[in-house]
Write a structure and sequence with these properties.
binds S-adenosylmethionine
């Protein structure tokens, strides 16, 4: 399977940062935190975390070697002090275990790639110190045009033999209510789960193709032979232009689900 492309992923960094800014607006970071960023990608959020909390230690973990390479390149540009307190490692968050180690478990736009989310969230609970906080965010935009059209395209006669089963193989992102129940059952307190929709103006529907080429299109392109990629992407773009009803500027609505919880004090 092709690795992630950090440059393509960061092409819309200003929009991808919006949910993280939302988290920062309410995450009460203190000094001397011990933070883990699960599925840290190219490390931009991990660096923000360390910049916003004095004398804290932050570790980013990601399964993608290309993402960790990009994250380490970003780390190398930081001050000596930040570099000393910041580390990145290739690792699978499905196997994440760290008994009572972290005061904050943070994860942005990564949990949706994992199948057994309850097990991951249980491990996150155990990884927290007493009173420690977990915050996660995932895309929950299955109703948006880009997602609907991608699913419909994969079911077209031409693509179905290769791409027909891909969508079913995705981990379903649950509702806030489902996650609230899950977190409470695991033992989290101060549980708060909710949707928030971000509005991203785009120059053209083709920009949505570029957005998804870095993320949601990867499972489709990974199973399609390289010489069919252009044809598939052109069909997808044509579908989006029809569905949005324009080749010009659009607003790309992106709903996300936020999960907050705290490990109770002892
Ligand atoms: C959409 S990117 C988000 C990156 C970063 N958190 C951000 O907000 O910019 C999803 C990331 O999750 C990582 N990922 C997916 N499955 C993973 C797993 N099982 N363990 C660790 N990282 C994983 C991918 O490699 C990718 O870097």
């Amino acid at each position: 399977m092709a690795d992630w492309n950090p440059q393509l992923y960061n092409r819309f960094r200003h929009y991808r940062a919006e949910p993280v800014e939302h988290i920062f607006s309410r995450l009460a970071l203190k000094d001397h935190e011990n933070i883990v960023d699960l599925g840290c990608g190219p490390g931009d959020n991990t660096v923000e975390l360390i910049k916003r909390s004095d004398d804290s230690i932050v570790r980013g973990i990601d399964r993608s070697p290309a993402m960790i390479e990009a994250a380490n390149a970003l780390r190398a540009k930081q001050s000596d002090d930040l570099q000393r307190r910041l580390s990145f490692a290739v690792g699978d968050m499905a196997r994440f275990e760290a008994e009572r180690k972290y005061s904050i478990v943070f994860s942005n736009a990564a949990l949706q790639w994992l199948r057994d989310q309850r097990a991951v969230l249980s491990n996150c609970f155990r990884a927290l110190t007493f009173g420690g906080q977990m915050v996660m965010q995932m895309p929950a935009n299955e109703h948006e045009i880009g997602k609907i059209e991608l699913g419909a395209l994969a079911q077209e006669h031409e693509w179905r033999p290769v791409l027909g089963g891909i969508e079913e193989s995705f981990q379903e992102v649950g509702s806030p209510e489902r996650y609230a129940l899950m977190l409470t059952e695991i033992g989290f307190a101060s549980v708060d789960c909710y949707y928030h929709t971000f509005r991203h103006p785009m120059e053209r529907p083709g920009d949505v193709v570029e957005w998804y080429r870095a993320t949601g299109l990867r499972p489709f392109l990974n199973v399609l032979s390289a010489n069919r990629h252009d044809e598939f992407l052109a069909s997808y773009r044509a579908r989006l232009e029809r569905a949005y009803g324009t080749t010009g500027p659009i607003t790309f609505n992106f709903r996300r689900v936020f999960l907050w919880g705290r490990r109770p004090e002892r």
